[in-house]
Amino acid sequence: MLDLSDRLIVLVLAAALEAWAGYPDALFQRIGHPVSWLGALIAALDRGLNRPAWPEAARRTAGVATVAVLLGVSVAAGLALDGAAQAARPLGLVVSIAAVAVLIAAGSLDRHVGAVARALDAEGLDSARREVAKIVGRDPATLDEAAVCRAAIESLAENASDGVTAPAFWFLALGLPGMLAYKAVNTADSMIGHRTARHGAFGWAAARLDDLVNLPASRLTGLMLVAAAAVVPGASARGAWTAMRRDAGKHTSPNAGWPEAAMAGALGLRLAGPRIYAGTRVEAAWMGDGRADATAADVHRAILLYRVAFGGTAALVGATAVMAM
């Protein structure tokens, strides 16, 4: 495994590469993406091991086995990549930078959320609904303009933790094996970690483990947003801190409430709250106590706060790497 100073350098360079280039569409069309590969494996395990006729205890055990297989495959792949990087130093660092850039989503998240605001500005509500449907699971037809904007901001806050902070955290802690293991768990949770008749028992292990591995990143992301609010014009660090401490624990997720509440308090908004998934109304607590009538301008403000939070953190990580050399 690369030592910590190397991992710090790799992370900063990989984040910059991903923010600049993203993951090329042509490459995705040709070979897919590591997350889509994991998704295909999870789907195959779901078909093969999740038997509706089995009792709940057996399906839960099968779900535990599924997570074990995913962790084994992802850790083995990470060790292989780490081994290749070590064997071919210094050029092997390029392998690590490319791998980390593929597994982090800082720029991709920025672009997808920004597309919602740009669509609303340029083409109106129907176009914005189409864009927000790419990043949230709720029925876009039920969303008015304010709800579209809240959904985009909520997705930005939650995925800042799941898609950026968490994979970066586990890379710094455990290298590529840790980062790939995190992505495997997070992908499994998104696919099978639902409280439905099919996945309530089978997806139990994936959902519980995802809650655990996201715990440090969600708190860190909330704190990063609080810090960014102190320097972003019009944002409130005090509001972010107050909302995070007061409201994060009320969220239906043990982790999503931290960045969402911090974002809401920083921008003077209310986020989360009741929403509709697949025709079913989900009663959820509000994060923040500001305006619920979010606008495209608020989405742009949220993106600025996100950029300052993560750009500032990347600068600190880079400075730490230089000092450690």
Describe, in plain words, how this protein is organized in 3D:
With 325 residues, this protein is mainly α. The chain has one domain. The chain is 72% helix and 3% strand. The chain has helices at 4-21, 25-31, 34-49, 56-87, 92-103, 106-122, 125-132, 145-192, 204-229, 237-247, 257-267, 296-324; strands at residues 271-272, 275-277, 280-282, 286-287. The strands form two sheets. The protein has a two-stranded antiparallel sheet with strand order 1-4. Strand 2 (275-277) and strand 3 form a beta hairpin. Helix 1 packs across helix 5 (92-103) and helix 1 (4-21) runs antiparallel to helix 12 (296-324). The radius of gyration is 20 Å and the shape is globular. The protein starts with a helix and ends with a helix. The model has no long low-confidence stretch (mean pLDDT 93).
List the helices and strands and how they pair.
Blueprint (H helix, E strand, L loop, with lengths): L3 H18 L3 H7 L2 H16 L6 H32 L4 H12 L2 H17 L2 H8 L12 H48 L11 H26 L7 H11 L9 H11 L3 E2 L2 E3 L2 E3 L3 E2 L8 H29 L1
Antiparallel strand pairs: 1-4, 2-3
Query: What's the mean pLDDT score?
Result: 93
Number of helix segments? 12
For the largest sheet, list the strands in their spatial order.
1-4
Based on secondary structure, the structural category is mainly alpha
Number of domains: 1
Q: Which percent range describes the beta-strand content?
A: under 5%
Task: Give a brief description.
By secondary structure, the protein is mainly alpha-helical. The protein has helices spanning 4-21, 25-31, 34-49, 56-87, 92-103, 106-122, 125-132, 145-192, 204-229, 237-247, 257-267, 296-324, and strands at residues 271-272, 275-277, 280-282, 286-287.
